[in-house]
Amino acid sequence: MLACAFLIYPIVCNYQKSILKGKIMKRSMLLIAMLMIGVFTSHAQTDTDTCYARGGYLDETDTCILEGGFSLYFEYPTEFVGYDIAQNIIDTFFELQREYFTDFYIETLSMDDDLPMRPWYLEITYDLYPYSEAGELVTVVFSIYEYTGGAHDNFYYETITFDLIEDTDVPLEWLFVEGSDPIAVVYPLVVEQLNAQLSEFGLDETWLEPSPEYFQDFIITEDSITFLFEPYVAAPYAAGPLQVEIPMSELADISALPFYTP
Length: 262
Hints:
This protein has helices spanning 2-8, 10-53, 84-111, 182-200; strands spanning 57-58, 64-65, 70-74, 120-130, 137-147, 154-163, 168-169, 218-220, 224-229, 242-247.
């Protein structure tokens, strides 16, 4: 019937042929257009990869921008002005942070053929946590934000507890009875809370180790002691900074507060 149709209705068949030919041409043109789009897309991706590979980024006009240098932003706690030892400790902290960061930047420039074009930065902010209303003990928590290239920035804690009456810093061991082992007591309590927090993110159990070096960032109040853990110390970067608060009532047997002796 189809062959007969071509014989009986040559005009119609020719018309159908022209339609089919037109469709084929349109499909061909569409394929060519798609190929051209693919070429341009591939070219754009190549340009993007080239830009990113050099530490650049694309602005709103798709222009590849390369920037360099670094910036420093420090919040200085003037609340400790007049406390000579406390102020000296804080000044030393900022000096070491600035020195380490700038030296690392210069060292990277001298070692790497490809300049770290994306701007680096070091930002330090702070919060204060008094032990009580009397203010005899105050903990300053420095939050350190740092970018030195790579996929993301980094975050660190640095805490210092000051006795403003004696004008001295207070290490963790001074908060507990001499001869006690506070890490052995707080470690299982901390791990229990960390695992509960991480499970909410669908992450595995904490890899925190019972070593004193991982418990040096803390906030002490009359009611509790809070331990702060920066990324990678207790869990992957995706978990972010973590905090665990332990009631002092659970540490009553080893606590030296409020009558600690510097």
